[in-house]
Amino acid sequence: HKELYLIEYLKVPVQVIPHLTEEILLSSFYNDIKEDLKFKIVGANRKIRADLPNNLEVEYLKCTPTTPMLEVQQVTYLNNGPFEYVRSRHTYSKRSVLVHSLYNVD
Fold first, then answer.
1. Per 3-state DSSP, what percentage of the chain is helix, strand, and coil (rounded to 5)?
2. Alpha-carbon distance 11 to 2, whole Å?
3. Residue 9 CB partners (closer than 8 Å, separation 6+)
4. pLDDT-above-90 percentage for the chain
5. pLDDT digits (tens, 9 = 90+) for 46-83
6. How far apart are CA 4 and CA 106, in angstroms?
């Protein structure tokens, strides 16, 4: 049994990635977007905040209702608009976030 360290909530508009399957999500999501669909990922916005866990997170992350959580909300963009909305939820003791920004990259 592997210990979980995050729960991720993902929304992908079906208009943008119409053939998305659970198999693709669990294995080659970004590769499928870049190689098969020939889309270019051009950037992302991230919002980072602290919060308390919900009931699902308490159960799966084995934490208490008062355990501090780190939440990273991300919107990822293709050259034709947003394609991915993600909320990653981590307990404070199991994860950190490094933000690396690149500018003027072709």
1. 20, 35, 45
2. 25
3. 86, 87, 88, 89
4. 44
5. 999 999 999 999 999 999 999 999 999 999 998 888 98
6. 36
